[in-house]
C-alpha cells in the first residue's frame, strides 16, 4: 500500500482564473505538479478547469493563447487560483471584484498567484489575513491595503486564503499543498520527477536540525538505490541513531525509513519498467533487489500491479 494512502483520496476540483498577461511559467509550475501527482499515484487526485471572467480566450505575457473551459461565474469547487501577472492594476474594478466575491462563496479556498493578491485585496477578500505578493509590489501592496497583513514570504497559507509571490514559488507552494493533502512522500516523488535541485529537501522539513537529518537521510537513500544500505548505517552516516531517524521520519513523512527507502526503490523500478526495455531481472538489480521475484512481489504490493502487466498494457 502506498505510504501516503491514508491521506485524502477525493479529487480536488480546482479552477484557474486566467487574465491576459498571465505567466506561462506560473501556470506550468502550478498545474504540472498536480498532473505529476495524478500520474505517480495512479489516481485522479486533482482536476482543473481553466477559467476567464467571460470565457473568452486569454493570452499569456509571451503570447501563448489559452481557450478557457468556462467563465468564472459558472464554476465552483475546492480551490480557485487567481492568476494575473503584468497589467494587473488594469484588471480590477467593480466587475472583477464582484465576480471574485461571488466566487468566494462557491470555492472552499482562494489562492492568489504572482500579482493575484492585489485583485483579492481590492475585492476585500484578504482583509484580516496574512498575505504576500510578488516582492516587487510588496511595499506598494502594504501601503494600499493596510487591512491586509502583508509579509515578505515565498507563499503564505492563512486559513482558506493562500497567496504566492511568483512563478518559482508557485512550484514550492503546489508541492506543499500536495504534501499536506496526500503526504510528504508523494510530494518528494513529484520533486524528484522534476529533478529539482532541492528535491531531497522538498518534504518541508526546513532548516531545523531534525529537518536537516531527514534531508540528509533522503539524499543518501536516493544515492544508494542500487545498493541499499541498512537503516542503521544510513542513520550513522547522517550522524544519528537509528531510533532517532525512525522517529523523525515518522513525524515528518508519516512513514518509517524502511518504507520510504522501499518506495524510492520501487519508484525507480516503475520508471525503468515504463521508460526502458530492460528485463525485469536487470530492473530488479538496478533498484536494489537481487531476486526479481522479490522485486515483483514488492512492486505488486506497492502499486497493485506487476511490471509485466504494465508493459502489456
UniProtKB/TrEMBL annotation:
Give the InterPro entries listed for this entry.
Class_I_gatase-like, DJ-1/PfpI, Homeodomain-like_sf, HTH_AraC, INH-QAR
One GO MF term, please? sequence-specific DNA binding
Which residue ranges does the record assign to the HTH araC/xylS-type domain?
A: 215-313
Q: Which Pfam families match?
A: DJ-1_PfpI, HTH_18
| Entry keywords, A to Z | Transcription, Transcription regulation
Q: What is this protein called?
A: AraC family transcriptional regulator with amidase-like domain
Q: Which organism is it from?
A: Shimia abyssi
